Amino acid sequence: VQDKDGEWYYNAMYDKALQYGDFVPTKDELEAMGGIYYYVRAIFYVPDAENPAVLHPYPSDAFKITFRADHISQSEIQRITVPSHIPLVQFLRYVPVQWRHPDYDEYFEVTRPIQAEEMNFSIRNKKTGDFLLPYKAHIQMYGWTRAQYQEVLDRMLPVGASFHYSKSEPGPWEKFWDEFFSLLKDIYSSVQEAYAQAKGAAISFVVDNIPFIGDTAREYLKKAVTFVVDYGLASIGIPPSLPNLDKLAAGGMDYLVTAAVAETLAAAGVPVDSALAAEISEEVRQQVEDAIAAELKKAMEAQKINPFDVDFLRLSSKHLYEPAYVDVLISNHSKTHYSTTGCLSMYFGQGYDLYHTESVRIPSLKPGEVTVVRVYLRHFRCARDVPPKYFDDIYYGKTGVPVSMRVYAAFDLPEAKEAAEAMGIPPAPLPAVSEFVYDHPDYKYKREFVPAEPILQSDDSVNPFDFMD
User: Fold this and answer.
1) What is the pLDDT of residues 267-319, one digit of tens each?
2) What's the CA gap between 134 and 235, in Å, rounded?
3) Which residues contact 64 (CB under 8 A, 6 or more apart)?
4) What's the pTM?
5) d(CA 222, CA 199)
6) CA end-to-end span of the chain, whole Å?
7) What is the distance between the alpha carbons of residues 161 and 142, in angstroms, rounded to a whole number?
């Protein structure tokens, strides 16, 4: 029978009901022994659809009934803790959006040591007074030695240094300015092409070069790797903004590949703590990382297009768009068990006026393994139904209404009672009523914040010692 709430239950007529008085112990016996358990299952005979004379038996679920002399409300409720093997989850940091500088195309950074002979443009530091002309012109005009020139060059333009080369300054910019916008288009297309190649290379590897997994696992892994690359592409803003690919390569890709491999193993039915899983995980993780990294390198090389036509400069990463992100620590402090898989979810504001809701999988970790999940956030500033000013007022904390951040981690666990039975954990002795509970609740972190300001203080409510064996 189905009730008004949609729940199903079994309904037996009174004359068909069990009469406990016919077979249960007496009250004195029950009080002496505390109580007794009965397991009941009903058999329903359903007529065949085509031949009603034929009856098909359908057993019900098994019901466990505790029978005691006293009313249940008078009995002690005893909690029994069930190991969940969930990992420690801890919010680490929030980093806001780095918006693209209005004149981002005038800022460049040095990617490798520059040799004196390679300098083909002039540069001046207004604060220190240092300046350099192109190498040959400088040597001829001032009679410097190569060593003198190199020493000043190393001081002015070390690896990682950024400098501003204004469009109004004379020099190579005048020659290249008309071409530079087409070069930027080339950068976009090169990055997109490199990502397409990364996806193709990674999937090709999965199809052709992993002989020790079956076709089912291979298909799951193909989908997982495709997701990894697509997620990375969307996370760093292609399109509309020119991305900082270094940041993506350095933070987030490792977790994505780890999660993809873990999900593949689970979907293929390979136990996460098996020798085969370990072999597949290490081999696939390394190979997929290599395949993607090789193509990402090409994409990063594309950013080195510049009006000076040199390979040691690229647009300054400090002036390019970078998405906001949240880092969450996932740590398995157990020495004996793999951790339980789960889902990490993040909510911001009202869910439609700041950042998209994000959810990512939490992979199973080996005993002692630690990983940092970096979740890139997609903002609503460019959404058609959210005016930029409305977004900006919220983002910079001008509305006077607190903005909330909520981070949740839920894990793939059965009912605690089912887990206890599977682990052989017995209920409390009668007449106590057993209440099975897991040793750790789901992770919840909530706080108010100004979205434009970073949060660099981690959640200090988490105690690692609670998660140790």
Assistant:
1) 556 666 666 666 655 655 565 555 555 554 555 455 555 667 788 887 787 88
2) 40
3) 37, 38, 39
4) 0.64
5) 10
6) 46
7) 25
